[in-house]
Amino acid sequence: MEFSSKLIEQAVGHFSGLPGVGKKSALRYVLHLIKQETQDVSNFSDVIKALKTDLKFCVKCHTISDHDVCYVCSNALRNHSLICVVQDYRDVMAIENTGLYKGVYHVLGGLISPMEGIGPSNLNIDTLLEKVAKEEVNEIILALNANMEGETTSFFLFKKLAAYNVTLSAIARGISVGEELEYTDEVTLGRSIVNRIPYNNSLSR
Description:
By secondary structure, the chain is α/β, with parallel strands linked by helices. The chain is built from 8 helices and 7 strands; from the N terminus they run αααβββαβαβαβαβα. It has helices at residues 6-15, 23-35, 38-53, 89-98, 126-134, 148-161, 186-194, 199-202, and strands spanning 56-57, 64-65, 79-86, 103-107, 139-142, 167-170, 197-198. Strands 4-3-5-6-7 form a 5-stranded mixed beta sheet. It has a two-stranded antiparallel ribbon with strand order 1-2. The radius of gyration is 21 Å and the shape is elongated.
């Protein structure tokens, strides 16, 4: 693709570096921005910069937040003795969108994947164990993807949490094996949370 401007070429290069954005789509975005008012483009630029400078990770559950403690963890009406363990922020959004879950979360920040060099020490597992040891936690829901990495991580947590007096459950599998939570429709995901089963039972499926 030939460009009449180095600036346009550089901008297209940055946009096309985003997931799922090809060169043609990137060029369309760039040309759209060129047509916008200067202030609108400046506001857009400021928001992108703020993503790196102003966003925080909740000190309690590790989800992305505008504040040190996220809106879920700071909500006294949530059930803080019920913790839903998820892979990342997108899963928190997906479950929140169901409107059916009233507990809190713990974001691992990934899944155990030896092929990618990701082990337990690379995830937010120690803080989960510390939370269970120090706080009143009655139940932990393992809401991880139904793939090899998700199952491996769930089993690792199952072994680690066995020493604590806490109920361990897994989301019911209305979700197909291999499917990621963020792409699951809200009704199916909501029912999977509500109809969760003891983790012990999920091992025999």
